[in-house]
């Protein structure tokens, strides 16, 4: 098949949406499909264009057999709602030359658009309508709902316009998919889809990400002592997680020299977290950059406790992608989730982590105490078993490819493409 993918994020980004889109593109290319990606310069989660790509204009490279068209665009140094809107819009405008070539070139068999940003689905939608090509619109975050729920956009009229744009895209998509059962319900409740919303979960390569003994972790490299208890957060440092709680919890344990908080990652919220650490004069919190993929298992083996935190208002609007790797590595996850959400239900049902109330410092401290005081072997074993059974990269992408092939043969097909259980 000739497959066109449109996404603002792509390899070599190590976390977030770009990681999954990059793995998807490479996997499809490895199966013999012709894959072209229109994307931006890599910048996430640092919110800074990667060094190797700085100063470049439009150019094309090949990554893992995929033709990747790169566009220059605006990346703000300080992320605000307005600057983020300009950032996303600049990518849409910058990508127009590539879309012009796509429009007059040989027809693609399918176009895949990845959200967020949700509005970049407009160009694939128009291409789909003009060239009569099936459009697969995949939702990693319910961006407009989240911005509305978190109060990131105050102007109700503007929010209404954003929902109208989203409606336009969803209504004209051949397939709409998202990453959790809760998000499937929320998309379905919009009542604008022409076909059912399907489940297309994020995955993990359980052969590469696996439990390692402590001796193979990064503890020695990081200068940790044998008896140190490590509370780890790794990933994007954004607004939706409520990460200030980590620093407040670290303040509570400041007299315990054996409890260390490690934060790996970057993002718009990092400066605020560093300021709190300085204000409280904490010596038990250390910040580190994201680690390369080949060191991920070793990083995850470093922790006694993994933090998976998000705000109440983000429940079932996003699903933390970091959890798949934690489960595959057999980690003990401390998860903030609201009862009745997909995240809460699956952790509780499969007994593979400790659940706490979101946005509560006391709940976080109580959860850490519980994790440190009890034997969490069962949680670790259950987590690894769940990842192997339900989150296998090969299984999920094989199901995805099968549906693409069916869709290519019959664009009106409405059968459910993916049956994997998902977190």
TrEMBL record:
Residues 219-389 form the Glycosyl transferase family domain. It comes from the Bacteria. One of its GO terms (molecular function) is glycosyltransferase activity. Transmembrane segments: none annotated. InterPro entries: Glyco_trans_1 (IPR001296), Glyco_trans_4-like_N (IPR028098). CDD domains: GT4_WbuB-like. Residues 15-203 form the Glycosyltransferase subfamily 4-like N-terminal domain. Keywords: Transferase. It holds the Pfam family Glycos_transf_1. PANTHER family: COLANIC ACID BIOSYNTHESIS GLYCOSYL TRANSFERASE WCAI-RELATED, GLYCOSYLTRANSFERASE. This is WcaI family glycosyltransferase. It comes from Spirosoma arboris.
């Amino acid at each position: 098949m000739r497959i066109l993918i449109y996404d603002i994020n792509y390899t070599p980004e190590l976390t977030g949406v770009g990681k999954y889109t990059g793995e998807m593109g490479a996997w499809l290319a490895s199966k013999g499909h012709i894959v072209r990606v229109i994307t931006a310069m890599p910048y996430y989660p640092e919110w800074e264009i990667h060094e190797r790509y700085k100063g470049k204009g439009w150019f094309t490279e090949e990554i893992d057999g995929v033709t990747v068209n790169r566009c220059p665009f605006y990346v703000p140094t300080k992320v605000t709602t307005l600057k983020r809107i300009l950032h996303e819009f600049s990518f849409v405008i910058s990508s127009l030359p590539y879309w012009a070539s796509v429009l007059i070139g040989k027809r693609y068999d399918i176009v895949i658009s990845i959200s967020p940003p949700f509005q970049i689905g407009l160009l694939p939608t128009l291409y789909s309508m003009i060239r009569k090509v099936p459009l697969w619109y995949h939702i990693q975050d319910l961006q407009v709902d989240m911005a509305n729920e978190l109060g990131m956009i105050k102007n109700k009229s503007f929010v209404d316009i954003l929902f109208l744009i989203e409606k336009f895209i969803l209504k004209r998509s051949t397939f709409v998919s998202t990453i959790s059962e809760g998000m499937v319900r929320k998309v379905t409740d919009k009542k604008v889809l022409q076909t059912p919303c399907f489940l297309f979960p994020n995955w993990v390569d359980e052969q590469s990400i696996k439990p390692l003994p402590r001796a193979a972790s990064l503890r020695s490299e990081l200068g940790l002592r044998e008896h140190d208890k490590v509370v780890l957060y790794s990933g994007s440092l954004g607004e939706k997680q409520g990460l200030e709680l980590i620093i407040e919890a670290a303040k509570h344990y400041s007299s315990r020299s054996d409890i260390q908080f490690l934060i790996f990652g970057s993002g718009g919220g990092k400066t605020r977290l560093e300021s709190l650490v300085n204000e409280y004069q904490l010596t038990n919190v250390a910040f580190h950059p994201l680690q390369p993929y080949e060191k991920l298992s070793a990083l995850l083996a470093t922790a006694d406790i993994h933090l998976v935190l998000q705000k109440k208002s983000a429940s079932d609007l996003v699903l933390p992608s970091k959890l798949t790797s934690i489960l595959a590595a057999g980690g003990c996850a401390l998860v903030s989730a609201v009862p009745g959400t997909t995240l809460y239900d699956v952790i509780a049902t499969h007994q593979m982590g400790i659940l706490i109330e979101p946005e509560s410092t006391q709940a976080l401290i109580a959860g850490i105490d519980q994790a440190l005081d009890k034997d969490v072997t069962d949680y670790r074993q259950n987590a690894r078993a769940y990842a192997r059974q339900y989150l296998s990269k090969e299984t999920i992408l094989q199901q995805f490819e099968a549906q693409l092939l069916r869709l290519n043969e019959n664009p009106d097909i409405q059968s459910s493409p993916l049956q994997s259980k998902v977190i």
